[in-house]
Amino acid sequence: xxxxxxxxxxxxxxxxxxxxxxxxxxxxxxxxxxxxxxxxxxxxxxxxxxxxxxxxxxxxxxxxxxxxxxxxxxxxxxxxxxxxxxxxxxxxxxxxxxxxxxxxxxxxxxxxxxxxxxxxxxx
Length: 123
Description:
Helices cover 78% and strands 0% of the residues. It has helices spanning 3-19, 24-34, 40-64, 70-91, 96-116.
């Protein structure tokens, strides 16, 4: 897939996966950096903007279905904002190549964990 049609298809697929809770944002980053040819920082910015569009409908659906613990969500959100601010500050001083390698290692670790570790969740 190339050009606008490929990008639109990748965006649609990532949005559907994000809404389903699969981690479409990570897949979008992989698409943008490998097939889209974007630098990692630019792809991360696009991914954040994309998240601002896709997250509200998914969050609304989760609230509507009673799947959100509001107290826990507030605490997690506060911790997430603090961690994001600290991470953005740290990443601003790092080389893009180092960030790309760290993201690759992180993605592999998460993928291997998902493949080989049992979940404690009782769905």
